[in-house]
Amino acid sequence: MKKLSELQDRQIHSLDDVKRGLSSLLNSVKARIEMEKGFGVDAFLATRQNKAVNPALNSPEKHILTETSIATASPGGQTPLNKEQIQLLENLKNEAAGCQKCSLSKTRTNLVFGVGNHKAELMFVGEAPGRDEDLQGEPFVGRAGQLLTKIIEAIGMKRTDVYIANVLKCRPPGNRSPLPDEIALCTSYLTKQIDIIKPKVLCALGTFAAQTLLNTKAPVGTLRGRFHEYQGIPMMVTYHPAYLLRNPNDKVKVWEDIKKVRDFLAGTLPVATTTQPG
Ligand code: URA
């Protein structure tokens, strides 16, 4: 008798395990479909089609915000413009334009200061300008930038709603990784930008942004997916769009991360920040 009830118990447990397994599988499939709809396959198809039809169309000009749009854009057209913030950003940009603290100022074509809404609730921080950004003087305008735009749109926002900046304001030659000295000399521009914009939430894209703002050497793989805190501001860490172009399977993880940012901004996700970056 005892044996029979043990057997039944075990069967019930394994049925529960199967249910749990199925439910987690369903959740993963749902996340995958949502992500593919948001910035998955389409992002790549769009890039490829644009290239095939007309290379000029592949130019990300449509995403570029000019200084005028910085001054005139306001989310939902409702937030009053803050002239003082605009002026502070302009002064900081001029200071960065004259900066010669490291050798990158000699090799760059243009300063890539930052772009977007000076009253943004969400601010993205990337690594450093690449070739396209260096040529156009705007962050995230190349292929990785197009994917970032898709990610922003996938959470129901526009590029004009957010602010986008990098750790480094000048392109490292040949797109090499930023050097520790360059980061140390350049970071104050970024921290001042954050201080002026005062976003409700930050999103660090990739290793360099995350490690710089959290002052840690922990790998992005262990930092991503949860809110940390930078100077009292909740900060999500996620993979860099350029990494996603090489590792499209990880786009699902970025979708999970960015949904948390969306839900936090919508007030439906209370943030338990993690100050321990490890
Ligand atoms: N990668 C970045 O980190 N920043 C850019 O502006 C473009 C590509």
Structural class: alpha/beta
Task: Describe the global form.
Answer: elongated
The overall strand count is 6
Number of domains: 1
Number of helices: 12
The H-level CATH homologous superfamily, spelled out, is: Uracil-DNA glycosylase-like domain
Q: Averaged pLDDT, please?
A: 85
CATH class: Alpha Beta
Distance between the termini: 52 Å
Task: Characterize the main sheet.
Answer: 6 strands, mixed
Radius of gyration: 21 Å
Portion in beta strands = 5-15%
Bound small molecules, deduplicated: uracil
Low-confidence stretches: 42-78
CATH fold descriptor:
Uracil-DNA Glycosylase, subunit E
Describe the 3D structure.
The protein is α/β, with parallel strands linked by helices and 278 residues long. The protein has a single domain, classed as Uracil-DNA Glycosylase, subunit E. 52% of the residues lie in helices and 9% in strands. It is built from 12 helices and 6 strands. Strands 1-3-2-4-6-5 form a 6-stranded mixed beta sheet, with helices on both faces. A hairpin with a 2-residue loop joins strand 5 and strand 6. Helix 1 (2-39) crosses helix 12. The longest helix has 38 residues, at 2-39. The protein is elongated and about 85 Å long. The N and C termini lie far apart (52 Å). Uracil is lined by residues 126-130, 133, 139-140, 142, 144-145, 166, 242.
